[in-house]
TrEMBL record:
InterPro entries named in the record: Nucleoside_phosphorylase_d, Nucleoside_phosphorylase_sf, Uridine_phosphorylase_euk
Domain Nucleoside phosphorylase: 69-316
Pfam families with a match to the protein in the record: PNP_UDP_1 (PF01048)
GO biological process: nucleotide catabolic process; uridine catabolic process
Binding site for phosphate: 110, 154-157
Protein name per Swiss-Prot or TrEMBL: Nucleoside phosphorylase domain-containing protein
GO cellular component: cytosol
Protein family per UniProt: Belongs to the PNP/UDP phosphorylase family.
Gene Ontology terms, MF aspect: uridine phosphorylase activity
Coiled coil: none
Residues involved in substrate binding: 232, 234
């Protein structure tokens, strides 16, 4: 029996919940460990991470992922593959000639995952349901692998508010469409609300990674919505029951409250990482100024080059951090 409660093989009984920390008892809030707040996991014969086509029996997760210190996620599989290639160059890794970077989850096409040294680059699809499934499985994967002191980053795209398109926003706080910094989830038919908390120090460090670039990096609140069209006050969806004045009043009010960009995963990301004791940050480029319009009409090659900007910032941070590991 420990001070905190009953020490089990994989965790500690705290207030009726087992807080798993991969074999080590810990005090609530202790740094470093991934918290799996689920008493059932330790009783399972095997944990199958279905959407990654990985599992605790079929794969040696510790060997595959035990050294991971940075998890970078973004919506598109192609972007996250590009980020992995970018990291190979930036971190000076060698991919033997003739060999490609392997998509670790290629037995399924739900998500794509690449590993470059201590960095994982993983796609999450669009919206909260998709990112939440991915985060459940990656958090468990990090836990099974025994990873410690892991930082998570969302590298994404967004609509800006009052910013020059192409500007990068490091999120100070993620809020929903009503301005709440918490994620509501229906669990057994009841609303379970968990705070969404991003790491302030990490956000500051990322802001400082801005150098003499040809784009601006600013800090601001990010609004996370459950829909790209009506949820973000667009006038160009298949349906719309409000007029332009009402749309502009809403977006202007968001801007007045400090919101500088709009996307679709940050609140859930901040809530799940915080619940697991993981430091996290959100860095998104803005593709348009929503105070000027709704359609994303910039040519795709330009959008592609802008989508590299958050990668540049996060890669600089990773390089800095790797010097201290
Ligand atoms: O560029 P990603 O990371 O996919 O993020 C943004 O783009 C998608 C909408 O086009 C949403 O998922 C939104 O959050
Ligand atoms: O306007 C935008 C652009 C990218 N992603 C969003 O969610 N909204």
């Amino acid at each position: 029996m420990s001070e905190e409660g009953i020490t089990t093989l994989n965790g500690t009984m705290m207030n009726g919940n087992i807080e798993l920390t991969n074999g080590r008892a810990h005090k609530e809030g202790a740094n470093g460990f991934i918290h799996i707040k689920n008493p059932h996991i330790s009783n399972m014969d095997e944990d199958v991470l279905y959407h990654f086509a990985l599992g605790t029996k079929s794969h040696d997760l510790k060997k595959m992922f035990g050294d991971v210190k940075f998890v970078c996620i973004g919506g598109s599989p192609r972007r996250m593959e590009r980020f992995a290639h970018f990291l190979v160059k930036e971190l000076g890794y060698n991919v033997p000639s003739g060999l490609a970077l392997e998509n670790i989850t290629n037995a399924t096409d739900r998500y794509a995952m690449y590993k470059v040294g201590p960095v994982l680059s993983v796609s999450h699809g669009m919206g909260v349901p998709s990112v939440s499934i991915m985060l459940h499985e990656i958090i468990k994967m990090m836990f099974h692998a025994g990873c410690t002191d892991v930082e998570f980053f969302r590298i994404g795209t967004s609509g800006g508010l009052g910013l020059k398109p192409g500007t990068v926003v490091v999120t100070s706080e993620a809020v929903d469409g009503q301005g709440k910094a918490s994620q509501d989830n229906l669990v057994l038919g009841k609303v379970v609300s968990r705070p969404s908390v991003l790491d302030k120090d990490l956000a500051e460090r990322l802001l400082q990674c801005s150098m003499n670039d040809d784009f601006e990096v600013i800090m601001g609140k990010t609004m996370c919505t459950d829909d790209f069209y009506e949820g973000q006050g667009r006038l160009d969806g298949a349906f719309c029951d409000y007029n332009e004045d009402e749309k502009m009043a809403y977006l202007q009010d968001c801007h007045n409250r400090g919101v500088r960009n709009i996307e679709m995963e940050s609140v859930c990301f901040g809530s799940m990482c915080h619940h697991a004791g993981i430091k996290c940050a959100v860095v998104c480029v803005t593709l348009l100024d929503r105070l000027q319009g709704d359609q994303v009409s910039t040519p795709h090659d330009v959008l592609d080059s802008w989508s590299q900007r958050p990668m540049t910032i996060v890669a600089r941070h990773i390089k800095n951090r790797m010097k201290t590991l």
